[in-house]
Write a structure and sequence with these properties.
With 162 residues, the protein is mostly helical. Helices cover 71% and strands 0% of the residues. Helix 2 runs antiparallel to helix 3.
């Protein structure tokens, strides 16, 4: 149990550092990858529902701390995205790099929709710019999930699902 928590915390620290240092340099226009969200969804793919909620909570907490804001929307979006990732991977779905990319893309869209309705969007007057940015971010996070999937395959978060 302690080993699992330490490994997950190490992944979060690395993802948070990558989110702060690499994300601004990897931007395509307004499309910026979220390494924290991608790492959290990849971690929660092999977790139970309770673990996914905890992973999502800490992802949202770190995400809001990384941007220097106290926003509940990040926490709610992280919890929902990680629980959806667990739900999608709990089916008879064989987890491959392609399915991991698809699951991360779907969960990113859900997280962005929750951030839109719970939190404040960056520019409320430009909703038509938000939609293509969300699709681009989902694709970008899905592409970032492929190498993360190979790294995180050995994470010992596998527990018996209820």
């Amino acid at each position: 149990m302690i080993r699992t928590v330490i490994i997950a915390a190490a992944y979060f620290i690395i993802a948070c550092a990558a989110d702060i240092a690499l994300s601004p340099r990897m931007m395509f226009g307004v499309i910026r990858p979220s390494f924290l969200l991608t790492a959290a969804i990849c971690l929660s793919a092999k977790a139970t529902y309770e673990s996914a909620a905890v992973i999502g909570f800490f992802q949202g907490l770190l995400q809001s701390a990384a941007i220097g804001d106290k926003r509940f929307a990040e926490i709610a979006a992280g919890i929902a995205a990680c629980m959806l990732g667990t739900r999608l991977c709990s089916r008879d779905l064989e987890l491959t790099p392609v399915t991991a990319a698809g699951v991360v893309g779907i969960c990113t869209v859900l997280a962005r929709i929750i951030e839109l309705f719970v939190g404040l969007p960056p520019n409320p007057n430009n909703i038509f710019g938000w939609v293509p940015a969300t699709i681009g971010i989902a694709i970008y996070n899905g592409l970032c999930a492929v190498p993360m999937y190979f790294v995180m395959r050995k994470v010992p978060l596998t527990a018996a699902r209820a």
